Amino acid sequence: MLSIETRALTKNFSVPEKDPGLWGSVKSLFNRRWRQVRAVDSVSIKIEEGELVGFLGANGAGKTTTLKMLSGLLTPTSGEAVVLGHVPWKRKSAFQRRFSLVMGQRTQLWWEIPALETFRLNQVIYGLSDADYKKNLGELVDLLELQDCLSVPVKKLSLGQRMRAELAAALLHKPALLLLDEPTLGLDVVMQQKVRAFIKEYNKRNKATILLTSHNMDDVVELCPRVIVIELGRLLYDGPLAQLVSRYADHKIIRAVFDREVKAADLAHLGTVVEDGGLKAVLQVPRGQVSARAAKLLQGFPVVDLTIDEVPIDDIVRRIFTHK
Amino acid sequence: MIRKYWTAYAISLQETLQRRSSLLMDRVGGVAIIVSLYYFWKALLGTKPSFLGYSGEQMLSYVLVMNILRSFVFTGRGWQLVGEISSGRISSYLVRPISYHGYTLALDLAQKTVHLAAAFLEVGVLIAAIGARVYLPHSLSTWLLFSVSVAVSSLLFFFMEFMVSSLAFWTSESGGPLFCFELGLQFAAGTFFPLDVLPHSLQKALAMTPFPYMVFFPINIYLERMAPAEAVKILGIQAVWLAFFVWAATAVWKLGLSNYSAEGG
Description:
The structure holds 2 protein chains of 2 kinds.
Chain A: E1 2-17, H1 21-30, E2 33-48, E3 52-56, H2 63-70, E4 78-83, H3 93-96, E5 99-103, H4 115-125, H5 130-144, H6 159-171, E6 177-181, H7 189-206, E7 209-213, H8 217-223, E8 226-231, E9 234-240, H9 241-248, E10 251-258, H10 264-267, E11 272-276, E12 280-286, H11 290-300, E13 303-309, H12 313-321
Parallel strand pairs in A: 3-7, 3-8, 5-6, 6-7
Antiparallel strand pairs in A: 1-2, 1-4, 8-9, 10-12, 10-13, 11-12
Helix pairs in contact in A: 4-6, 5-6
Chain B: H1 2-18, H2 20-45, E1 50-51, E2 54-55, H3 56-73, H4 78-87, H5 91-94, H6 100-130, H7 140-166, H8 175-188, H9 200-207, H10 216-222, H11 228-263
Antiparallel strand pairs in B: 1-2
Helix pairs in contact in B: 1-6, 2-3, 2-6, 3-6, 4-7, 7-10, 7-11
């Protein structure tokens, strides 16, 4: 069954434009000009129940805007979406009971009092019986190692503890769909690892659909068999993470070992030299010309060993993030 | 259903008590105002039996009852609402199955509870310390009319404040409207002095606004300065204003929300 389906989902924003300087500010006070920006442009995706999908793109690519439309916070300019059988922006409570949106930088926890109180509030908001509440909470506290954080005011928690408490608050009602915006932002490596392990486990245990955005390479590589890439609001790639490389990388990597020193300058005509150590070199070569260049390398240089590799996946994802 | 809001009330009560220093600060400011007003009127009255139609006891009671009434009627979480809208934190409520109006009202009531208790305590201490006498209404019907009028004006304040705070959906420097509202409100409602002090024409003009119906007239009902029939008329006008602001607040909220959904936050 489909968890999420969108057809040509599009969102325009109007943003005010201002000339530089003080005079520009004064002018814009009386005569504000607006410019239309297309944040999401005709995005069509289908996500099956139980999938764990990474949603990638550089800053401003339209990821958060898409998540907001899927959670019903934003109404699209045009296009359709059906999430868990509902049109999200109608904000029906039958829909809201079945999903959760977690934004890394925002908290739903009450700041001055212990997280347990927010959990209790969510229990009644989502209409959980006491038995279900206890069971779910027990599970989450175990998985997220929250035992020591429950009775401390939220403002006294570390960022990692807070993020885990945040996840617990969002998952108490066992949502069938979880939208995660940057779940590991600002966490240290150990904590990132814990949060990732938890997300994986939650997905497996509950057959929950999870769509997550992240700028953290490891999140994507470790968690998401499938990725969706958007750039400037447009869908760029949707498929297995493994195939992202062949689709996205326009070059391969040739590594060569020589038995005599070779100067980098002499190799320049074969490709971009990314590393050279006299007896070793690493070259970036356009995909279509790999065999021809490798042959030239073998003929013209004292090669003892040569391998041809795909570009590492994290390189690709990193390039997607940085827009190159 | 009601359990949601009850729990929100209970949590908010905890949180208000947790912010001890800000509560204390609020209250100390309030006490300073009533103490100075109390002595101001006492000096002004001197040995006169009455002033502007208020007996000495009534005038001083006005100040003390005002403190209690203000704490109950004018306590709300407008600033938090503005903050939640402009920071986008409101999103976390909009994706959960709860009515934001009901939720906010529950939270307001929690704050009102705490401030009301504090106000009673302050007035009690003042009465004990300076031997002030407070006017107590003679008839049961006065108590009844007064209670209803206070309940209505609390709701009236809730919806007015909700409406003004919702303007934060449009203004990015969103505190402005709420600030102006609060300033005008305190003055026009008669919080600082009985409105009878003002020139007649200004009084008449103010009577066309909802503000005097929030504090000034309820206190006048309490002090039994109006006939029961007149008091009922006041309640009627309050009800009309309430109906209007329920409508207006809902309309502004809906518009704001659709603006928010259109532009994001």
